[in-house]
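Notes from the 1:1 (GR / supervisor)

We went over the backlog. Supervisor wanted to see one worked example end to end before approving the batch request, so GR pasted a single chain during the call. The sequence is below; no edits were made to it. Supervisor asked that the structure be written out right there so they could see what the output format looks like.
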Amino acid sequence: MSNYKSIKLSRIKNINYSFGDKKTKTDAFTLNQVHGSDVVILDKVPDNIIISGDSIITNVKNFSIGVKTADCLPILLTNKNSSFVGAVHAGWRGTFYKIICKTINKIEDNFNVKPKDIVAVIGPSIADCCFEVDEDLYKRFIKNFPNFKSCFLQDESKKKIDLKRINYLLLEKMGVSEIEILNECTKCNPNFYSYRRDKSKSQNQISKINLN
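Structure output shown during the call:
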């Protein structure tokens, strides 16, 4: 387990999880992430093949799944009975297209888990202090999320979006009540890889979760 602890996940039996940083050595199955909104369901450990998507859910025990991030949001999921685990990569595109909502729907449909029983933790990622966008993207987000006014910030000529807060509110809207946000900002904190700070797409940290 890394130094970035989730109070809610730490209370759940029969799972292991980790929110990674630069120093974390992590081995987990990850998807070929394409900054989209496709959800992959795995009912067995896959063969050595490339699977594309940005959200992964499974009920296979002793099988670590994870997401690679360097500013995007890693969202880890399970339920109070630890009957499944999930890992979601939610960048601004995934957030815009509501990948977390699609994931919650897939969990309910495939694992018969109600949203009220799901635990969701939003891990270290770029925060509203640093996610500055151009006016076009800012307006697109406001149009797409008209009821989330608290997620849009203007500081003089700068326009910023709170992706963590948007995903939190989307989870709430889906009926998930056990939600936690880890407040670390990957751009501010040099312990994390950050695309916005480092201008490199070749390095990232992995956040993972598995059933025991």
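Supervisor's comment: The mean pLDDT is 95.
Batch request approved.
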